[in-house]
Amino acid sequence: MSSRKFLVIVDDTAECELAILYACKRAAKTNASVVALCIAATSEFQHWLGVENLMREEAEEEAEEMLDRVLAKMAPKLPLEPERKVIIANRIEGIRQAISEDPSIMVLVLAAAQGSEGPGPLVSAIAGGQAGGYPVPITIVPGGLKEDEIDAIV
Question: pLDDT averaged over consecutive 10-residue blocks of the chain (154 residues)?
Fold first, then answer.
């Protein structure tokens, strides 16, 4: 298997599953792999180190559970099993950190939400002015794609 990887963000949004599906199918077709990243945010609570450590542990545990839940649900549709990664940070910095820590990540895959509220907060944040600052290409999957349509374009 090649060392080329697609990075996909796992969260509790509906579009997350579409991004995972696209990334895994594209990776399988191009002899690549997928990193499923869940970013756990903690508040900046630094008054007592013990409390901060406990909050970090809980955030990491919740992120691992989200990875378990989402990837188990998606497993029957995925042609390969993604590598799992958890980072404690804000979302934008977590994505940048994952890319900088793994030079084989070559593409960031996001999916846009459907509806009048816009493409979703992550796509809005990244595509709205920060896209040029990423060291890898960003693929944004339209939120309305069906699985057979993904198969046709990967």
Answer: 86 92 96 96 66 85 96 95 95 93 96 87 80 85 93 93
For 111, residues 6+ apart whose C-beta sits below 8 A from its C-beta are: 15, 16, 18, 19, 22, 120, 123, 140, 141, 142, 143
3-state SS, residue 36: strand
Burial tier of 124 (Cβ tally within 10 Å: 0-12, 13-18, 19+):
middle
pTM, rounded to two decimals: 0.90
List, in sequence order, every beta strand (DSSP E) within the chain. 5-9, 33-40, 83-88, 105-111, 138-141
Indicate left, alpha or beta for 114 from its phi (over 0: left) and psi (-120 to 50: alpha): beta
